[in-house]
Amino acid sequence: MKFFVDTADTADIRELAATGLLDGVTTNPSLIHKSGRKFLEVVEEICGIVDGPVSAEVVALDHETMMQEAAVLRKIADNVCIKVPLTIDGLKTCKALTDDGAMVNVTLCFSANQALLAAKAGASFISPFVGRHDDNGFDGMALIADIRLIYDNYGFDTEILVASVRHPIHVLEAARIGADVMTAPPSVIKMLSKHVLTDKGLEGFAADWAKTGQTIL
Ligand code: E4P
């Protein structure tokens, strides 16, 4: 499963990129607002840090303006992935952009039928928001399982990008189901390495090693 980080904080992106675990980045208008930086400038910086897809979202609601915004974003770097909303205009934009060779991430997906439409529109990625789904009393992971089944039934190439990930269990479940990608905040990605028994084991080894009085270097 590929790991994307869901942030516009370039310090966090650099730190994670250095681990070699990062396959891409997703941003959205709220994350850009949180960064307090200029959208185009921050996307350009992120594209210079990671080689993989960097999702940058259009903000227009109509197809024509989405296409104009996408043209600006595509000029930033080859690894820019245009993020469009799951609306009829967004799907039309997805089809036009992918036909023209662009990477497209269709975002704000909350149903398997929406995901089916995105695949038919040629999306590179579909982003079902599991956390927001759960927050509203739906079963986010059941949605991922449905999309996996449907995409496999028809051999769609669209990658399932599990978004709105809140905790490590979301990542575990997404991997069990066979999602292609997950995007999570830096804190959640770091949490994946944590285990109380790892910490306890390290403490024990360090204490016993100190008693040997030896050094390696
Ligand atoms: C995905 O691309 C979105 O940016 C993101 O995962 C939304 O997550 P949130 O529900 O935590 O805002």
Automatic annotation (TrEMBL):
<keyword id="KW-0704">Schiff base</keyword>
<dbReference type="InterPro" id="IPR022999">
    <property type="entry name" value="Transaldolase_3B"/>
</dbReference>
<dbReference type="GO" id="GO:0006098">
    <property type="term" value="P:pentose-phosphate shunt"/>
</dbReference>
<comment type="similarity">
    <text>Belongs to the transaldolase family. Type 3B subfamily.</text>
</comment>
<comment type="pathway">
    <text>Carbohydrate degradation; pentose phosphate pathway; D-glyceraldehyde 3-phosphate and beta-D-fructose 6-phosphate from D-ribose 5-phosphate and D-xylulose 5-phosphate (non-oxidative stage): step 2/3.</text>
</comment>
<dbReference type="InterPro" id="IPR004731">
    <property type="entry name" value="Transaldolase_3B/F6P_aldolase"/>
</dbReference>
<protein>
    <recommendedName>
        <fullName>Probable transaldolase</fullName>
        <ecNumber>2.2.1.2</ecNumber>
    </recommendedName>
</protein>
<dbReference type="InterPro" id="IPR018225">
    <property type="entry name" value="Transaldolase_AS"/>
</dbReference>
<dbReference type="Pfam" id="PF00923">
    <property type="entry name" value="TAL_FSA"/>
</dbReference>
<dbReference type="GO" id="GO:0005737">
    <property type="term" value="C:cytoplasm"/>
</dbReference>
<dbReference type="GO" id="GO:0042182">
    <property type="term" value="P:ketone catabolic process"/>
</dbReference>
<comment type="function">
    <text>Transaldolase is important for the balance of metabolites in the pentose-phosphate pathway.</text>
</comment>
<keyword id="KW-0570">Pentose shunt</keyword>
<dbReference type="InterPro" id="IPR013785">
    <property type="entry name" value="Aldolase_TIM"/>
</dbReference>
<dbReference type="GO" id="GO:0004801">
    <property type="term" value="F:transaldolase activity"/>
</dbReference>
<dbReference type="GO" id="GO:0005975">
    <property type="term" value="P:carbohydrate metabolic process"/>
</dbReference>
<dbReference type="InterPro" id="IPR001585">
    <property type="entry name" value="TAL/FSA"/>
</dbReference>
<keyword id="KW-0963">Cytoplasm</keyword>
<dbReference type="InterPro" id="IPR033919">
    <property type="entry name" value="TSA/FSA_arc/bac"/>
</dbReference>
<keyword id="KW-0808">Transferase</keyword>
<dbReference type="GO" id="GO:0016832">
    <property type="term" value="F:aldehyde-lyase activity"/>
</dbReference>
<feature type="active site" description="Schiff-base intermediate with substrate">
    <location>
        <position position="83"/>
    </location>
</feature>
